[in-house]
Amino acid sequence: MAVERIRCGMVNCWLIRGADGSVLVDAAVPRYKDQIYDRVKDCNVRLILLTHGHPDHVGNAAYLAERLGAPVAMHGADMELVKNPKGRKLYADTALGKFLLGGTERSLYKPHKFELSVAFKGGEKLDEYGVEARIVALPGHTEGSVGVLAGDEMIVGDAMFNVLKPTVARMYEDRDVMMDSVTHIRLTGCKRILPGHGGAFGVERFFAGG
Ligand SMILES: [Zn+2]
Ligand SMILES: [Zn+2]
Fold first, then answer.
1. Which positions of the chain have pLDDT values less than 50?
2. CA 78, 36, 60: angle at the middle one, nearest 5?
């Protein structure tokens, strides 16, 4: 099994490739729709999993679901964000976080509507979609944020960032809840963290003492 990065400008999609299919994690922004489709069209994508409801991660969900014939899954708690991206307040406390937050707020748009076929809560296994991986609830950045643990790698959505360096989410709905989720990431025992923004990094680059 392997997890491959699909770079879409400032945001990543990740493709988990298993023996019996693939799971595409996140769907970036509309202008990358053909690039993502061409990259995954021969990979037997059996599920499109959205780490959370922000527009930069769900933009092509409807388009890809239709072209790939794959169901779309996310945490039920973020569905309202998809319908109303400005419906929940985000916070940031660092200068860079505030800068990024400004950009996020300017870019909020109404994504294409899509049918949510599967609602996850955390703990679900993805065997039925062809990959050995497990959903992990990571609330805080948004209430319905999830990650995916695949072997010793963990896709974390926006629970952690690697913009300039590995950090906790640069912006969040609830900072305390987010910090608990970052602790949870460490407790999974994963070795590599695959964020929504920036490249993958080893856990030792963020967590002292591994
Ligand atoms: Zn986000
Ligand atoms: Zn993001």
1. 210
2. 35
Please indicate, yes or no, if residue 20 is contained in any of the structural domains: yes
CB 194 within 8 A of CB 151: no
158 Cα: distance to centroid of ligand 1 (angstroms): 5
Residue 86 forms part of a structural domain: yes
Which ligand number lies closest to the CA of residue 78? 1
pLDDT of the residue at 2: 93
Q: Is residue 42 part of a domain?
A: yes
Nearest ligand, measured from the Cα of 27: 2
Beta strand pairing call for 146-150 and 153-157: antiparallel
CATH number for the domain that contains residue 101 = 3.60.15.10
Is the full-model pTM beyond 0.85?
yes
Ligand nearest the Cα atom of residue 11: 2
User: What pLDDT shows up at residue 210?
Assistant: 45
Three-state SS for 84-104 is CCCCCCCECCCHHHHHHHHHH
Q: Are 27 and 58 in contact (CB under 8 A)?
A: yes
Strands 72-75 and 45-49: parallel
